User: Fold this.
Amino acid sequence: MTSMQGLPVQPRHDKGFSMSALGDGVKRGLPIVLGYVPVAFAFGVLAVKNGFSPALAIALSVFQFAGSGQFVTAGLCATGVGVLSVTVSVFVVNLRHLLMSASLAPYLRPLTLWQKFLFGYEMTDETFGVHATAFQKGWSLSLATLYSCNVTAHSAWVFGTILGAYCGGLIQDVRPLGLDYALTAMFIALLVPQCRTALHVLVGAFSMALCVGLKVAGMTQWNVVTAAVAGACFGVVLLRAKAASDARALAGGEHE
Assistant:
């Protein structure tokens, strides 16, 4: 939810840990589970085939918990790349988390530093989409709901990794199963409810077109981050222009 000036409205802070709040978080996380299990399964298969032990693959899902970053880690380590190169590559791939954190920061002001740390540890693209939609709808800021949603999603990712790491040997190639499309389908399902106005659709179309254009032009690592930043700036310009236009129209009406 936003104010008339386009700024986020501070949600009501619910500090309780009721069963209903926990259950609400689990419900929010269930759609993510459907997308995470097959993709994490594919990661478990890939990691083991690239020489990782099942325990190490599971540890990555527990402590790193970054889907694209984990695939990058498994792929680069299999080629014998050094630790520094892997670290830098994963950092670049996950730079988008800075944008997501900045977007949610106004809503999370009531939380303590450690509460924000725990929340950020398990925040992914998908949980960001769920939380952002909830805040935009004006739902309360409930720690129980936030954490239970994140834990539900994280548990599904770890479970999928365990299945892939220990049972992936039964499947020679996961691509014919279409598992690689599960995450894309989930992103689409999370994006559509957030496109509530023509402004959202216009900014989204601009960002996607720019992202594809940059990739075609040869920018294969920074295209997503660059397009996201440019899209956000474009949206701010449009939002301020609309606010100024509304203010002029209001002032004109008052003079009449």
